[in-house]
Design a protein that fits this description.
Blueprint: H1 5-23, H2 40-46, E1 52-56, H3 59-68, H4 82-102, E2 107-111, H5 112-117, H6 119-129, H7 172-175
Parallel strand pairs: 1-2
Protein name: TPR repeat domain protein
Keywords: Transferase
GO molecular function: protein-tyrosine sulfotransferase activity
Length: 183
């Protein structure tokens, strides 16, 4: 894909405008879009200071999380069928490998389980990678009052905890996810 510098500049302006209208004067934005990896190349080209952080979760946990949410009409249609979810997960794994190999300085990949079990070490490593200073408040998301526009808006307001690590297990047989290949 060849995108002109003018198009990239316009994309950056539109993104900054959109974020400003939603978040006001926020200097940093976390975008948890499920399509981030699909647009990683143009996004990182248009926003030279941006980084992509990927938090990898157990595929079964992610599959259940996607399956149980109702998305806006016409969005994330793959999430209503377990086979489609698994295909989506494989595609995401492929995209992650593709972009992380080509732009390693702009990607930070961390495991959700590691983040939960050793949050300070994981968060410090992330902040170092994206060149932000350490702040102890990072260990207490329950105290954060910043705007959140995501399906997990309740979860991100809770203390760091392990409740989601095995939440899928009671549903494994019903959903057939325990014996499906996730990758």
């Amino acid at each position: 894909m060849n995108i002109s510098p003018a198009s990239l500049s316009k994309l950056a302006e539109q993104y900054h405008s959109e974020m400003s209208s939603k978040l006001g004067t926020a200097k940093r934005v976390t975008d948890k879009s499920l399509q981030t990896l699909l647009y990683a190349g143009p996004v990182l080209s248009a926003l030279p200071k941006a980084h992509i952080v990927v938090v990898r979760r157990d595929h079964n946990a992610t599959a259940l999380s996607l399956y149980k949410h109702v998305f806006r009409p016409g969005r994330q249609l793959f999430s209503y069928d377990m086979d489609d979810i698994r295909a989506y997960q494989r595609d995401q794994d492929d995209l992650l490998s593709f972009w992380a190999e080509r732009l390693p300085d702009r990607f930070h990949v961390m495991d959700y389980e590691d983040l939960i079990t050793d949050p300070e070490r994981q968060i410090r490593a992330l902040l170092e990678t994206i060149e932000l200073p350490w702040d102890p408040a990072c260990l207490h998301p329950e105290n954060n009052t910043n705007a959140v526009q995501t399906l997990s808006n309740v979860a991100v307001r809770r203390p760091i905890n392990a409740s989601a690590l095995s939440a899928w297990q009671p549903y494994a047989k019903v959903l057939g996810i325990s014996d499906r290949a996730a990758s």
